[in-house]
Specification:
Secre_tail; five-stranded antiparallel beta sheet; signal; 3 helices; disordered N terminus; Neuraminidase; Glucose/Sorbosone dehydrogenase domain-containing protein; mainly beta; four-stranded antiparallel beta sheet; Immunoglobulin-like; 6-blade_b-propeller_TolB-like; single chain
């Protein structure tokens, strides 16, 4: 356990670029409620940014469709290449796509990527696991977790998402083989769920099958909220791009249903096949891509919303959710045509939003931030403090807070919320029984400011 604790703290310290985020020149500003959001370029000269993930080293991890995997320093924009995949096939829309980091990165530094490759003249898709070395800044020891998925140069998906139970979700497109989306024996047009070693989880909807959901055309965004709800963005044909609430064993209709079940033939199919209608659709299409969830006080107007990057419409779309998470209440847009096609998106623990463009050859990562919040939060941090004990802790930890009605959020090394207390009293108890051993951050937000402390769970 001492090794785990020291390794976790070393990871947090070694890459911590918090000393000074040099403010890059503003490219544009725009209002979000009462806040002013500034967009600036973190780094340029990239080529089709496909994935952005906030890493446990406090760096951005990035994939580019041509096959390069890199770490990006969010304080300086320096790009540190880790690996260019030797067997990727970047043709049309195919190439290196999604990426996910193991939640227990301090002790299991595994990086999962999904990409297209050529096998005996045929284009296919596979999920491969690499092992990261911080000392060498490299990825080595590839292991194919899932391979031989049929593919074409379009409709390959694919996003990866590791769930708290350490299973992996993989979105796959229909590979232009439309009927396969309804074929449970096919891996195409699905969201798949598998163990991290590539085996089938015992509690999947159908015994022995990786199929978690079916009836998808080309899902290219996937996000899990702190309360466990899952959402996906999906490309329609020439109509009905979708945002879907993902539920196990549900059918999402394609190709028999486009968008809602609002035609007679569609309604009958939906009733007979457990179809889950989308939360919202777009006609004309917008080409929805990366999807994330925002719930940080830095930009209050975005709290409780999905944020969607779009390719065709070249916009950032805010999708506020209702309290139940089963309806989208508005669709405001930002940055229309300002930076071209937008595909990748993620949020840092400090509330900055990072966007990756996908124009080809001259792409960049953009930083969206409320610079006024960063300054005021820094000043308030000294006056806003709380006690946390015991630390390290095992089954529970106690918080002594400076005021009531504070919001408490526990985040893992990837910055993901794993425990939330929306309205804590002046004393609160954290139930840690569902958390694995490792390092976490405890963030407390109240009317007087916010503060964060590290918590070690034995």
């Amino acid at each position: 356990m001492k090794f785990l604790r020291n390794t976790a703290l070393a990871l947090l310290a070694a890459g911590l670029p918090l000393a000074a985020y040099a403010q890059a020149p503003a490219l544009t500003t725009f209002p979000v409620g009462t806040a002013t959001v500034t967009a600036s370029a973190l780094t340029t000269g990239l080529d089709h940014v496909w994935e952005l993930v906030w890493g446990p080293d406090n760096f951005l991890w990035m994939t580019e469709r041509g096959g390069r995997i890199s770490r990006v320093n969010p304080a300086t924009g320096q790009v540190l290449p880790l690996l260019t995949l030797p067997d990727v096939t970047p043709t049309g829309e195919s190439g290196l796509l999604g990426m996910a980091l193991h939640p227990d990165f301090a002790t299991t530094p595994h990086v999962f990527v999904v990409y297209n490759y050529t096998d005996a003249g045929s284009l296919k898709e596979k999920v491969v696991r690499y092992t990261y070395s911080a000392a060498a800044n490299s990825l080595t020891a590839p292991v194919v977790v899932l391979g031989n998925i049929p593919a074409t140069t379009t409709h390959s998906g694919s996003r990866l998402l590791i769930l708290p139970d350490r299973t992996l979700l993989v979105t796959t497109g229909d590979a232009q083989m439309l009927p396969e989306a309804q074929n449970r024996a096919s891996l195409n047009g699905k969201i798949l769920r598998l163990n991290l070693d590539g085996t089938v989880p015992a509690d999947n909807p159908t015994a022995g099958s990786m199929v978690y959901t079916l009836g998808h055309r080309n899902p290219q965004g996937l996000v899990r909220l702190p309360d466990g709800r899952l959402y996906s963005s999906e490309h329609g044909p020439s109509n009905d791009d979708e945002i879907n609430k993902i539920e196990p064993n549900r059918n999402y209709g394609w190709p028999n249903v486009e968008g809602a079940c609002d035609l007679p033939g569609e309604a009958a199919f939906c009733a007979a096949n457990n179809v889950r209608e989308p939360l919202t659709t777009w006609t004309p299409t917008i080409a929805p891509a990366g999807l994330t969830y925002y719930d940080h006080p830095a930009i209050p107007g975005w709290r409780g919303s999905l944020l969607l990057a779009t390719l065709k419409n070249q916009q950032l779309v805010q999708l506020p959710l209702n309290a139940a998470g089963d309806a989208i209440t508005a669709r405001p847009v930002f940055l229309t045509s300002a930076f071209g096609r937008l595909r990748a998106i993620c949020v840092s623990p400090e509330g900055r939003v990072y966007l990756g463009s996908s124009n080809g050859g001259s792409d960049r990562i953009l930083t969206l931030e409320n610079r006024a919040f960063v300054a005021s939060a820094t000043r308030a941090a000294n006056a806003f403090a709380f006690d946390l004990f015991p630390n390290p802790a095992r089954r529970q930890a106690t918080l002594r807070l400076p005021m009531a009605n504070a919001r408490v959020t526990v985040r893992d090394l990837l910055g993901r919320a794993v425990l939330t207390l929306p309205r804590a009293g002046t004393t609160a108890v954290l139930d840690l029984t569902g958390l694995r051993a490792g390092s976490y951050s405890v963030q407390v937000e109240g009317a007087a400011g916010s503060a964060t402390r590290q918590l070690l769970v034995d």
